[in-house]
């Protein structure tokens, strides 16, 4: 019944693609598929898991650059991010080339996500929170029962996401983190988009951007 996860850093940006799975049913999802399809599918197969979907937090290349390649090999729905990140995903051909990533065409997710939507993995329910600021369509995924937050590039260990990109907004980011994320229980574990995990309690006490 337990919800399990493994961080699988991908791309030169070491983006924390995360394999989440339900121990009992073996149902699995991959979040933020930035690249390295063969390795990711190898991790799924090695654990005998049944990959059911790709979940995306936002449209940056290190988080979505591998989606088209992966879904050519496994026919799974792509859920998220919020539609306000479509302009990022439509720029993938130019951006993958600019960053020297393997080329990706643009794509359209199977379903855009909105505040209050829910995603399920086996018996585990994740609530969608829309947190614009780093990108306008950034979402984070919160499983209350497992006390786990998939935070993408909103929140890092003692830091927050950059807001100097097109349509970034620092005030929006801070306000949304305060109103929707810092209200979660202190012992909620946070999977960040890059680097180490943290907890809500740690960030409340030690994050210099949120004092
Ligand atoms: Zn990002
Ligand atoms: Zn990132």
Automatic annotation (TrEMBL):
Pfam families: Lactamase_B. Its cofactor is Zn(2+). Residues 14-194 form the Metallo-beta-lactamase domain. One of its GO terms (molecular function) is metal ion binding. SUPFAM superfamilies: Metallo-hydrolase/oxidoreductase. The keyword Lipoprotein does not apply. InterPro entries: MBL_Glyoxalase_II, Metallo-B-lactamas, RibonucZ/Hydroxyglut_hydro. Keywords: Hydrolase, Metal-binding, Zinc. The keyword Hydrolase applies. This is MBL fold metallo-hydrolase.
């Amino acid at each position: 019944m337990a919800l399990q996860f493994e961080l699988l850093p991908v791309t030169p940006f070491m983006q924390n693609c995360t394999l989440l799975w339900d121990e009992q049913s073996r149902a699995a999802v991959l979040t933020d598929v930035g690249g390295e399809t063969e390795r990711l599918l190898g991790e799924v197969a090695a654990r005998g898991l049944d990959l059911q979907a790709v979940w995306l937090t936002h449209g940056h290349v290190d988080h979505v650059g591998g989606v088209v390649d992966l879904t050519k090999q496994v026919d799974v729905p792509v859920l998220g991010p919020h539609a306000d990140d479509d302009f990022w995903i439509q720029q993938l051909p130019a951006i993958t080339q600019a960053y020297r990533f393997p080329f990706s065409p643009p794509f359209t997710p199977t379903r855009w996500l909105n505040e209050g939507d829910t995603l399920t993995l086996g018996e585990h329910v994740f609530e969608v929170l829309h947190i614009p600021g780093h990108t306008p369509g950034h979402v984070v995924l919160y499983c209350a029962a497992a006390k786990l937050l998939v935070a993408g590039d909103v929140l890092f260990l003692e830091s927050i996401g950059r807001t100097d990109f097109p349509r970034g907004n620092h005030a929006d980011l801070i306000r949304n983190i305060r109103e929707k994320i810092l209200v979660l229980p202190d012992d909620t574990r946070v999977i960040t988009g890059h680097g180490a995990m943290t907890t809500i309690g740690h960030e409340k006490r030690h994050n210099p951007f949120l004092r």
